[in-house]
Design a protein that fits this description.
The complex is a heterotrimer.
Chain A lengths: L1 H10 L3 H16 L1 H28 L9 H18 L4 H10 L3 H5 L5 H31 L9 H27 L7 H15 L11 H9 L7 H8 L4 H35 L3
Helix pairs in contact in A: 2-7, 3-4, 3-7, 4-7, 4-11, 5-8, 8-11, 8-12
Chain B lengths: L2 E14 L4 H9 L2 E15 L4 E5 L6 H9 L6 E6 L9 H4 L2 E5 L11 H11 L4 H15 L14 H13 L5 E5 L7 H18 L2 E5 L3 H7 L2 E6 L2 E7 H8 L2 E8 L5 H5 L3 E6 L2 E7 L3 H11 L2 E7 L3 H12 L1
Chain C lengths: L1 H19 L5 H22 L5 E2 L2 E2 H35 L2 H5 L19 H17 L6 H31 L6 H8 L15 H21 L5 H27 L7
Antiparallel strand pairs in C: 1-2
Helix pairs in contact in C: 2-3, 2-5, 3-5, 3-6, 3-8, 6-8, 6-9, 8-9
Classes of the chains: A mainly alpha, B alpha/beta, C mainly alpha.
């Protein structure tokens, strides 16, 4: 009976993905100290900006009329959670460990897509750090007793969830493409540093993009980065109408399609190059 | 007495985790630890100029002992003295007189020729110009690496890199040299070169050398004295010949026959290890080897007979398996 | 003393030789350096686009703080950070052994090996911007000001090193925390903002962050001619205490060092 149950379990289509995910989750759980440190990094910059703005409000009377402290607090706290859950960090692994050090060969020999493998490796890190983020969020609310508002309409909640899932998809695919660029360049650090700065400035990590100078704001909306963290955050905050949320979903779907297509192109060309040099 | 170890112990606490996800969750709330006795009450003394082989299986405690002697690890208990210093105090005067070479680890700057590392070490060890030039010249000549001095370390083969590692470690002419598996990963020719160098170095400089190795050839060719360690305890400390006499319970008789003899007749003399006519190998108890030899010569058409000691690897393997 | 000078001279040469081995990466490293130099300037410009002043610092003064950050961090990255990164790696891979076997002070050995010449570009950028901003703020640069400014910066670099080192030694107890160096790069961002910003925080958060809050604010106040005796006293007192603490922790941690097996 048990043998039959096990046999059925293994033959179910999603089971092997689940088991692989569980294995990686266990590994990340063992590295929870490292995970916590990564979370602290995600927390730090929003915390500093929040502190900056609390002083700015105190010394500049006009600001609170368009941006209250509780609005700001909710933005930066949600930013921390969103960064933890949605910003993927595979590019260095892909570029240095897999491509430069040849670990990619191991993946190429597996009857399992590399794209999915890396996702299974990364997902546990997102979940655990996201949980740290939620914990920090609740602690902050309890200590400061600030009232923070979110969307409460069920439809908006569902659409916001979709926005978050699509954000993860954009984040993952974009970072995968970045990592695969190491197939063509010897100095990946240069690319990484430029990516880091662009991400920071155009991702909404400094302050809400709506408060940027007009030109900079427009440029941000043209890039996929704003759809990874910024739009999920303001969607959850309730700063978008339901129609605006649908528009965000459409743009995200377009970006997912474009990025995935780009990934496929880079992957096929890149693997030919990688295997061609006998790595 | 250059090296003196008295009741050295080095214990580690190692966390034990149950397998599986639930094991990970359980270990969050309740951790179990196991004490690993890497070195468990060992004592020995080494005189100036001795070349001692320190052998044991993986995890025996060899490297841990070397690291306690070189000052890298604090002992859990016991007394350690090298050249009159307490190693873990890591005084500069002590560090200037020792060297530790680890087979798979390197101290050379990867992107530069080894010469740059030598010059760095010259400043670190405060070696005078004249002395540096002479020592470098002697080592380069002994190891025959003149043409490689200006080649980037990353472009050298493993064997060439090992030679440069040795020069970097010996440039300050240490009185005590700890070699941790120096020939590991090298091909047989390079291993021989290494051994020849170590032997010559020991003879020339009268430096005290403690060498750990998995390769019996290293021990056979180099060590006058052997210390066998397993599970943190010393199983044997003495001359290699005495090791054979103490632990080899058997001798091996190799014979060449003129005419075919059935195996069962040969088995009457002793344990027939192999028989591929005309050659046969018979194992007999040590004390009965002469009697067995006489029997073979009398009863069988033997063309040639040799009485040999068993392979040193076999003896040491027997030592380890007996002690488990 | 002579040994240290000769050794450091040798290290300067070795690091320069290592740098020019990879001529192809020169350009991308320079670009990276410039990109990071501009990064915080842009952030400050964005943040202050809506507010003329914060915590008693005007927009111009905050940008001056940002340019001092480039000078400071350029020096720190040139001489210190790569070494601490290397030490973290050495602890993780058990290669700290070779550092500990050398007849030089083990703590000194944590900072001397690597010199990152490319980061001097950030120093140059920062100094150029600082001089420009001093002009726009109508502050006259004097020789005593320059001397005190650099003295405070160098002391601040030592303070930051003393702040980083105990964290890195945590790896000796838990080698898995190999991302601690990235964390330290991040937490150094605390220094980019004025010290007054942190005075609002509870004491248990403010005190640990105080060294970071001081390392940039203090030299910037030298330039702004707002350097007071109290600030100077606090700065040097924190530096001495932190320095002693870092040394104590380092020495204590070495007793627990269990290098990776052979």
């Amino acid at each position: 009976m048990l043998a039959t149950k096990r046999a059925v379990e293994f033959s179910l289509p999603g089971m092997r993905y689940f088991r692989i995910f569980l294995l990686h989750f266990q590994d990340v759980f063992q590295n929870r100290g490292r995970s916590f440190i990564y979370f602290l990094m995600a927390l730090l910059n929003p915390a500093l900006q929040l502190l900056f703005w609390s002083g700015a409000i105190a010394s500049n009377a006009g600001i609170e009329s368009y941006w209250s402290f509780s609005d700001m607090a909710s933005y930066y706290l949600l930013l921390t959670i969103a960064t933890s859950f949605l910003v993927v960090h595979i590019e260095q692994d892909v570029a240095f460990l897999d491509i430069k050090e040849g670990r990619l060969s191991k993946f190429l020999l597996h009857p399992f897509p590399y794209f999915i493998s890396k996702f299974m490796e990364e997902l546990p890190w997102r979940i655990i750090q996201g949980l740290f983020g939620l914990g920090a969020f609740m602690l902050f609310i309890i200590i400061t007793r600030i009232s923070i508002s979110f969307i409460s309409n069920p439809l908006q909640i569902i659409v916001a969830l979709v926005i978050c899932l699509l954000a993860l998809g954009i984040s993952y695919t974009l970072k995968m493409i970045l990592g695969l660029l190491a197939l063509w360049t010897t100095d990946f650090w240069g690319i990484l540093s430029i990516e880091e700065v662009i991400f920071l400035i155009f991702g909404g990590f400094v302050m809400p993009l709506t408060y940027y100078p007009e030109l900079l704001e427009k440029v941000s909306y043209f890039l996929p980065i704003a759809y990874i963290v910024y739009f999920p955050v303001i969607a959850v905050q309730g700063k978008l109408t339901i129609n605006e949320m649908y528009q965000v979903v459409i743009v995200q779907l377009i970006w997912v399609g474009v990025l995935y297509g780009l990934y496929r192109l880079i992957w096929h060309r890149g693997i030919r190059k990688y295997t061609g040099v006998g790595q | 007495m250059v090296i003196s170890l008295s009741h050295l112990k080095k214990y580690y606490q190692v966390h034990q985790k149950e397998p599986g996800f639930m094991g990970s969750v359980r270990s969050l709330f309740h951790r179990t630890y196991q004490t690993v006795k890497a070195v468990d009450d060992i004592s020995f003394e080494i005189d100036e100029g001795e070349l001692v082989g320190f052998i044991g299986p993986n995890g025996a405690g060899k490297t841990t002992t070397l690291k306690c002697l070189s000052g890298l690890l604090y002992p859990t208990s016991g007394l350690v003295s090298v050249l009159g210093f307490t190693p873990f105090e890591r005084k500069n005067a002590y560090l200037k007189q020792i060297a530790l070479v680890m087979g798979q680890k390197n101290q050379l700057w990867w992107d530069l020729p080894a010469q740059e590392t030598f010059l760095l070490n010259k400043e670190i060890y405060e070696i005078e110009d004249g002395e540096y030039k002479k020592t470098l010249h002697d080592l380069v000549e002994l190891l025959d690496v003149e043409s490689l001095l200006k080649v980037q370390v990353r472009k050298l083969s493993l064997g060439e890199r090992m030679k440069m590692e040795l020069i970097a470690a010996l440039i300050h002419s240490p009185k005590v040299l700890f070699l941790d598996e120096p020939t590991i990963g090298l091909d047989v020719v390079m291993q021989k070169n290494m051994r020849d160098f170590i032997k010559q170095y020991n003879e020339l400089k009268k430096s005290t050398i403690l060498l750990t190795s998995h390769y019996m050839e290293d021990v056979k060719q180099l060590a006058q004295r052997v210390i066998i360690i397993d599970h943190g305890k010393i199983l044997y400390d003495g001359k290699l010949e005495s090791l054979v006499k103490k632990f080899a319970k058997h001798k091996v008789l190799s014979i060449v026959l003129d005419e075919y003899v059935t195996p069962d007749k040969l088995e009457a003399v002793g344990e027939l290890v192999s028989y591929d006519f005309p050659k046969a190998v018979i194992r007999v108890p040590r004390s009965a080897s002469n009697v067995a030899a006489a029997q073979l010569l009398q009863k069988f058409p033997v063309d040639d007979l040799n009485i040999e000691e068993p392979d040193i690897e076999d003896i040491i393997r027997d030592v380890f398996t007996q002690k488990k | 003393m002579k040994k240290s000078i000769l050794l450091y001279r040798r290290l300067l040469i070795a690091n320069w030789n290592a740098l020019i081995e990879y001529r192809g990466d020169f350009i991308t490293q320079i670009i990276s350096s410039l990109v990071f130099s501009l990064n915080h300037i842009i952030i400050v410009l964005l943040l202050t686009s809506k507010v003329p002043s914060v915590y008693g610092w005007s927009r111009g003064e905050l940008i001056l703080l940002a340019s001092t950050y480039n000078v400071f961090i350029g020096i720190f990255h040139t001489f210190i950070s790569r070494n601490l990164d290397q030490i973290a790696d050495d602890i993780y891979f058990g290669k700290l052994d070779y550092v500990l076997l050398k007849p030089i002070d083990s703590q000194l050995a944590t900072v001397i090996w690597k010199i990152n010449y490319i980061s001097l570009i950030r120093v140059l950028f920062g100094l150029t911007l600082t001089v420009y901003l001093m002009g726009t703020l109508h502050i006259i640069i004097t020789v005593p000001m320059i001397v005190v400014y650099f003295f405070v910066i160098i002391t601040g670099v030592y303070m930051l090193y003393s702040f980083w080192l105990p964290f890195i030694t945590l790896m000796i107890f838990n080698p898995r925390l190999s991302n601690i160096v990235i964390f330290l790069f991040n937490i150094t961002n605390v220094a980019r903002y004025p010290k007054e910003m942190y005075a609002r925080l509870p004491l248990y958060i403010f005190v640990p962050l105080l060294p970071l809050a001081l390392i940039l604010t203090t030299p910037t106040k030298v330039l702004l001619q707002k350097f007071t005796f109290e600030l100077g006293f606090l700065f040097f007192a924190v530096c001495i205490v932190l320095g002693l603490f870092a040394r104590f922790i380092w020495k204590l941690s070495l007793r627990h060092y269990t290098s990776a097996s052979s």
